Amino acid sequence: MSKVDLSQGERALRSARWFGSRDLSGFIHRSSLHAEGVSQNALAGRPIIGICNSWSELVSCNLHFRSLAEAVKRGVLMAGGLPLEFPTISLGEALMKPTAMLYRNLMSMDVEECLRSYPLDAVVLIGGCDKTIPAQLMGAASADLPAIMLVGGPSEAAFFRGQPLGAGTDLWHYVDALRAGHMTESEFDELEAAAGPSVGTCNEMGTASTMAALVETLGMCLPGSATIPAVGAARRRAAEATGARAVELARRGPLPSEILTADAFDNAITVLGAIGGSTNAVLHLLALAGRVGVPLTLDRIGAVSSQAPLIANLRPSGEHLFEDLHRSGGIPALLHELEPLLNADAITVTGGPLADGFSGASTADMNVIASLSDPFAPSSGIAVVRGSLAPSGAVIKRSAASPDLLQHRGPALVFKDVYDVQARIDDDALPVTRESVLVLKNSGPVGGPGMPEWGQIPIPRKLLSAGVSDLVRVSDARMSGTAFGTVVLHVAPESAVGGPLSVVEDGDPIVLDVNSGRLDLDIPPAEIDRRRTHLDPPPPKYRRGYGAVYLAHILQADEGCDFDLLRGRDPDGNQSEPYGLLSGWVGGW
Known about the structure:
The protein folds into 3 domains: about 10-40, no CATH class; about 45-155 and about 200-360, 3-Layer(aba) Sandwich (Rossmann fold), CATH 3.40.50; about 380-530, Glucose Oxidase, domain 1, CATH 3.50.30. Helices cover about 35% and strands about 15% of the residues. It contains 21 helices and 14 strands. Helix 4 (about 65-80) packs across helix 10 (about 235-250).
């Protein structure tokens, strides 16, 4: 790819259209900041750097963002800019119901319109919890204002009986132990008391850590900053450096549209496969690519990902935590190992190529980051499957699946929704065997609504008690990036809009062949068509407000679950033009 030319001098400051005119317009705009104690000198020719802060006491992942914002401001001031902090909504997967994914697109619109409408020359995006990072990136990509990301970093490890805990991965193991009668309620209470020792995102390769790794790979944050722990002083130093870099972005670029290229997305897909990252990242990459007009597809994700072996030994696909990746060299060390598979000349927020960020990097612990020649597993962590049950595709995290179930044929045991799962999964009379394929319907973008993380259907208690730890599970839902098992997700089209998943009945044979990329409902096509004629579409979950807007415009999983009206570039070219300026209305003085 051709490099972005950053040698043409400084860009005209967008904020000057608000603050530079000697007329009523400039008077009003300047005086509004004078009321905050900002002087005329502070506005004179300085880049205005927005600090987009998703801090919230409802989201423990993001609770330390106030101190990060102060460090960003320090960096902006040191570099000669003026920082102006503003809030947006904050998404937290733990407390938001039915799911934070329902509101990812809403947050992206919040970010985009703030960037579009305020007098900003560049923005620092401070995000952490799962959907916050992609929402901010999507909004910034649509506004196409110079932008740089600062992720919040992973939380400290909890310790339970002397062992470090992954925030989600180990919890799922202990939940199964409790359900199977291998752990007492008092022991589970002890686990709860030990969990959550600090602010920060999930500390294994869950969705937040995955997205942090991909942000650095895409070139949207400073090299080496993705993996720094949330509570470390280095995280605040990175915040300061990010603020300083934002000032240079305002002056010289590059823009998000110059960074988020097809080559950059291929790099991100390669890393996603190599780290055994969250399947949720597939949705976010598809949505982000759609915002900048990169024609990314599930098939492209499958093809690029398949070239990358698993070289990161991180839970849930491996043994270690995200902070261990940081101590082993972070994303620069990982990229250095993957260099033969990367587009190393892709431009980043530094203004230089991706290669500059990992040049000279080395791996401190080969038990955490392996080499391409000696990977932890020969196959990518992510695989795409499609067939008569998923005509538009589905995904599976093969690195966290049971190898003996990657090729499987078994009878369906169908749950009509998540409430049906809750009611029956631990019933000793449930007609389930080791060969069964658990099927969950009505949990997709429309059916959930919002595509909740319900896809990791629990193993029925009677099988857990018999020592069965995994079954093939198929749904149109998502699952937490911290989760594991042979779980096929994101089946498209979803059941609520009449996809083949909607007609599956108990006993129907389902065939999964991950190596061949197949997921089939093994009944005659004529029978599938016959069943479809008897379907009654479910009533809409929302009839007013944001929910109604969501249902009217949501795309399916194979297109990233974005809104149809948000994809692509602005056809009028008004990506970040300020409307309603009064310049010239009264005249100069």
